[in-house]
Amino acid sequence: MGESDWLAAVFEEQRGHLRAVAYRLLGSVSDADDAVQETWLRLAGTDQDAVENLGGWLTAVVARVSLNMLRSRRRRPEEPVGDSWPADAELAAWTGPAAGTGGAGRAGRVADPEAEAVLADSVGLALLIVLDTLTPAERLAFVLHDLFAMPFPEIAAVLGRSADATRLASCRVRGAPSPDHGDLGRQREVAAAFLAAARGGDLSALVAVLDSDVTLTGDAAAVPGGRPAVLRGAELVARGARLSSARAEHSQLALVDGAVGVVYAPRGRLQIVLALTVSPARKITAIDVIADPDRLGRLRVAVLPG
Fold it and tell me: What's this model's pTM, rounded to 2 decimal places?
């Protein structure tokens, strides 16, 4: 085996871990793959004999590349909606090999594949809300240390900061209010039932998931007449939703400012968001239809697994 073949084989062994790190930092599969590819290019142009710990070096590089992408993204808020959160990357983020010199992961692998999927899904929902409140540097420090067990001095080298400064993000996340997993699960269940009924044009199923006094508001950009509109009552709102069955077919569940809603984003460009309010009785009490570009640009949106 030639040196180039050996290097490629070693990189492939690390690819899953690098993709998980980049994915946790970027929240997008395509962006994570771009970061991994850039890491490979940097490895190919580096003197590998000067690298003592190849795994740690690769992790540091993919983290630095991801950090630059995060900072660039913050400067360009018009970026399209990202990819969904696939179970394999979620699981790799929690059960894959740790970064840095430690070598051992923080979390043990769950034996039951179904339990792994449930764990990945629930953790992804809750953690995404917290991660989205962090600056790029804080997010990197938290992900590398708390999820991948990279020591603070190594993170500090990536960030160009002191080791003490890198501890702040971890402390901030631990001190943040924990999202209510049960509440998110209830929201998702109701939103999924609403979207399925809308796709099928099932009027009775739509009425069943709506509160009798539900209110739907649409901004001027969401209404054909170009003027804000309000619909009240389950029957009226259900009929309006049934008329949108073709659009619902291409819509997806998403986190919208920390709550589960529905997004319509053809070709990755966000056009319409349905922000849902779900009661403890598992009924939708309010729907805010958002299509105004300025309003859409201020939303924090992440598509959820199907």
Answer: 0.54
